[in-house]
Structure formats: C-alpha cells, structure tokens
C-alpha cells in the first residue's frame, strides 16, 4: 500500500524520528517531500510504502504523531525494471 499524508506542523528536525519510527513499525520506505501550501505555508508530503499487515499500526502512529485526521491510500502498480 502507498499512503500519502500531508502535514504543516512538522519541523525538519523531527523528520529523522518520524521516518525511523515509521520504518520500525513496518514501513518499507518513507519519503518526506517539502511543499508549499495555501498562503505560502510550508508543509511536508509523506509517501509511505506499507505492507497491508502494518497499515493499522502505522495509521494510528500517524494520527498520534502528526495530528492528521485522514490519509490517502494510493492504488499502486509496481513495474520492476530489474530482470
């Protein structure tokens, strides 16, 4: 599963903690992308690759740590170029 979460209340200093914590809870990969939102406010977009078995634990962690009220699950199709 690929989860997308945006948050505007995370500092750059807390990113290592968040990424490590998500990985410790079963995420396969985590990407935090800086972005600009309305009125020029900064935010981060988190793209989190999660095996379905870890979805509940990771979504609970996100709700607690990011104060997020929701997240997006992106249907994905992976095309491997390695043979």
The unreliable regions are none
**Secondary-structure element order, N to C:** EHEEHE
- Which class best fits the helix and strand makeup? alpha+beta
The number of strands is 4
Q: What is the terminal-to-terminal distance? A: 23 Å
Mean pLDDT: 91
SS element count, helices = 2
Task: Kindly describe this structure.
This protein is an alpha+beta fold. The protein contains 2 helices and 4 strands; from the N terminus they run E-H-E-E-H-E. It has helices at residues 15-24, 55-66; strands at 2-7, 29-36, 42-49, 72-74. A 4-stranded antiparallel sheet has the order 2-3-1-4, covered by helices on one side. The protein is globular. The chain starts with a strand and ends in a 9-residue tail after the last strand.
Salient structural properties:
globular, alpha+beta, 83 residues, 4 strands
Task: Describe what is shown at a glance.
The chain is α+β, with helices and mostly antiparallel strands and 83 residues long. 27% of the residues lie in helices and 30% in strands.
